[in-house]
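[Automated response] Your request has been received and processed.

Submitted sequence:
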Amino acid sequence: MWNFNGKVKPSFAIEPKDGEESVWDYPRPPSIQRDSRTVLIILNGNRICETRKALKVMETASPPSFYIPRSDIDLSYLKINQEVTFCEWKGMANYYGDSSDSELKSICWYYPNPKSYFTSIKDHLAFYPARVDCFINNEKVNAQKGGFYGGWVTKEIIGPFKGDDQTLGW
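Generated structure:
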């Protein structure tokens, strides 16, 4: 079993070039930084969010997730569903589904009462780029592989990533 912690890169990590970020340089536990690039979220052709106030959460082996201030999201397109999960770092997560989807499949999550180190993500939602269209500065975001993950893959993020083929052991 692998035990990566962001301090030592595995031999299979791709070395970043200028302007690139390796997910193997991200820490564990995760870190948070403000990101002033324009983040756009489109759901079923509707622009439900455009902000320059996202928080970028970075954790070893995964592309970053972007947390959007609730106040910058048109919540009329979302409806709380029953899904609940637990993150060892952030705490209990709740989910929203697409309000037009009768099954209310989760499209984003949030932490109503995050653990102390992560209080800055309170009142923020993170979207799955596999389930909605996400853009950073007009670049379409690719989804991290694996249905559970919500990482945002852009041209500057390099891996390999948790969720890719052959990563079940780590």
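Summary generated for your ticket: The mean pLDDT is 93. The two ends are 7 Å apart (CA to CA).
If you did not submit this request, please reply to this message.
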